[in-house]
Amino acid sequence: MNVINKTQFDITLGSLLDRIADAPHLPLIFTYDGHEIRPGYHVTEVKAGAFAALDCGANPEAWSEIFVQLWDIEEDGRSHMTAGKFSAIVRKVSEHVNLDGSAKLTFEVSDGVRPMQLYCATVPQEVGGMLRVELSPRPASCKPRDRWLAEQAPATTCCGPSAKTACCAA
Question: Are residues 147 and 106 located together in one domain of the fold?
Fold first, then answer.
């Protein structure tokens, strides 16, 4: 059975901003579908959503999610935006929209031709003088099954003797 480690790719807006604050001068480069986003990319929207749902096991669900829309285009003479510019865009949005730093983060990416695709992200890593964020397609999931699988996994005690969650879930 192939089970994706969702915590590896489900970062929050706050964790993204915290990491890029350490290197605001570095280019922020997203990778998806096996390639880098083009240097002329734009952040075309940042939006916040509060969701309430009923899952397939008839369990009520509620969560907040932040969507960052990236337009993957080439523009003459442009280079990849810096981490600081990305942060400034998010700060500007936060002046008008309540952005919950602990909300799940989803990227919507399109080149303006292909349909928009949904991605989750890893924590940015500094590689070769750039901050790289790996985007991975956001798969559908069954929340009752996900909870059951989590209950079956052995507990990791890295944060103290009474820790009940894995380190990466904290």
Answer: no
Q: What is the pLDDT of residues 6-62, one digit of tens each?
A: 445 689 999 999 999 999 999 999 999 999 999 999 999 999 999 999 999 999 999
Whether 35 maps to a domain, the answer reads yes
Question: What is the value of pTM for the model shown?
Answer: 0.82
pLDDT at 75: 85
Q: Is residue 1 part of a domain?
A: no
Cβ atoms of 80 and 130 within 8 Å: the answer is yes
166 and 115 housed in the same domain: no
Q: Which residue range(s) make up the domain with 151?
A: 141-170
Q: What is the largest CA-CA distance in the chain?
A: 56
Alpha-carbon gap, residue 2 to 6, rounded angstroms: 12
Residues 30 and 72 occupy one common structural domain = yes
Q: For residue 158, what pLDDT is reported?
A: 55
Q: Match 């070769």 to its residue by tokens.
A: 128
Q: Are residues 124 and 166 in the same domain?
A: no
